[in-house]
Amino acid sequence: MIDFKNREIWLVTGSQHLYGEETLREVASHSQEIARALDSAGDIPAKIVWQPTVKTTDEIYSLVQKANHDDNVIGLIAWMHTFSPAKMWIRGLNILHKPLLHLHTQFNQDIPWATMDMDFMNLNQSAHGDREFGFIVTRLGINRKVVVGHWAASAVQKQIGDWARVAAGWADWQGAKFARFGDNMRFVAVTEGDKVAAEAKLGFSVNTYGIGDLATVISEISDKEVDVLIQEYEDSYDLMDVLRKEGTQRAALRDAAKIELGLRSFLQAGGFKGFTDTFEDLHGVNQLPGIAVQRLMADGYGFAGEGDWKTAALVRAMKVMGHGLPGANAFMEDYTYHLDPKDAKVMGSHMLEVDASLAVGRASCEIHPLGIGGKSDPVRLVFNGGGGPAVASSLVDMGGRFRMVINAVEGVEITEALPKLPVARVMWKPLPDFQTSCAAWILAGGAHHTSYSQNLSVEQIEDFAEMAGIESVIIDQDTTLRQLKRELKFAQAYYQ
Fold it and tell me: I need a labelling partner for 417 at 20 to 30 A (CA). Which of 164, 203, 246, 444 fits?
């Protein structure tokens, strides 16, 4: 359900008629070569599509109009090969609704010392043409990504590719629908928010559906469909003995499979990209969805528990951004701490619903009691997550604005046995250190629910927040509490 195949980014080259037709032909030839190189770059997942050189106000405006109305276009890359007077760009930039990357490059990598003349200088003047363009974008207050360096360099292509992934995540949010089965967990603050403001600012809608509507769909699932899915469970996971064919809890596994099939049917029929549920509202459903949620997330759906629609939407966006890369993106919760003064760590988990895409090795399919919710014992996948660099992000509603809290972390392999903890387990060390990170997260108002990523960077989540036009708070190796407190105060003053 995630596909970059038809996603396009247009390479837009700016110039003017001042330099004559011969120069403009060279400009077009150079930009076509750059577009071909970027389109074939392995680090860039979207199509890079060359556009004819824009030289007038009307050409710029017309191109932006076309980009805005083409759903396949997820962003524009702008490059000023020569000098493109910036007043020509005002009308077009004022209507631009797609993300913008300003590529500050030039066609030639090196100066041709022996042959360089004024004709060459007039043709290859990105050094100041891009500064003219940069001024007007800043003057108009438009958020954009600036990438600097030669277009053929792998580091430059990697930056463009990272941004392209972010643009794809943003495009995926536009018009996306998220289903909320039941309401928010009672009395909880941080998982709530302004859904009207979210749709106006972020582009996706959230609507509530009664759990009875879902229960009706679940009840219509056939035994044959359940049999097929049960076989998939047996092929994919290590089943507890009680869940096997002659096991005493086999009926619970069938119920879990029926819930998954019903959820999947409901989401597909409604065109939803994610959903939430809550253990406080399960009337008509035999058990809190566990394995069903885990497998739907693995297929690309966003999810968060207890009605937390903001995190569900963020999980979906990050799944789109990380699609095709090693590692995974998943719903997560900071659950408990290892407070060894020399080796403090966070253990992330949830009652049931952590995506098994994070698993090291084959997950175990198990059933155990759940002390809340008042329903039958739920089936879930149990596993340990792996180590390595990761990012934990939280989208919160600060009242009048949204804030993205982003923490760089280092995943840690779990080496101890956990025979009495029948849930998914992921462990990490937050940067810059445990004490600073936790204090900074709390000061920033970060939620206890996060989207945990093994394949995205802090910079990409920051870029995503900039595309959305929302505040971001970064907690990484450079964070100090003194500076963070200042930043939060400045942000409060800025947004009020």
Answer: 246
Query: What is the distance between the alpha carbons of residues 420 and 404, in angstroms, rounded to a whole number?
Result: 35
Q: What sign has the CA pseudo-torsion 483, 484, 485, 489?
A: positive
Distance, CA of 366 to CA of 38 (rounded, Å): 47
SS3 assignment, position 189? coil
What are the C-alpha distances in Å from 442 to residues 99, 158, 219, 349, 485?
31, 33, 43, 19, 11
Which tens digits make up the pLDDT trace of 294-345? 999 999 999 999 999 999 999 999 999 999 999 999 999 999 999 999 999 9
Preceding omega of 432 cis (within 30 degrees of 0): yes
Residue 410, phi then psi, degrees to nearest 5: -120, 110
Record the tokens describing residue 102, joined without a space.
């300003």
Residue that the structure tokens 């438009």 belong to: 142
Q: Is the pLDDT of residue 373 over 80?
A: no
Model's pTM, two decimal places?
0.96
Q: Dihedral sign, CA of 99, 102, 107, 109?
A: negative
Separation of alpha carbons 7 and 45, rounded Å = 8
Residue 290 and residue 378 in contact, taking contact as beta carbons nearer than 8 Å? yes
List Cα–Cα distances, 294 to 176, 260, 291, 416, in angstroms: 20, 10, 5, 24
Residue type, 161: G
**Burial class (CB within 10 angstroms; exposed 0-12, middle 13-18, buried 19+) of 183:** middle
Instruction: Please state, for a pLDDT cut of 70, what percent of the chain lies above it.
Output: 100
Which among 37, 71, 315 is positioned nearest to 154, based on CA atoms? 37
Among 288, 315, 472, 302, which Cα is nearest to 380's?
A: 288
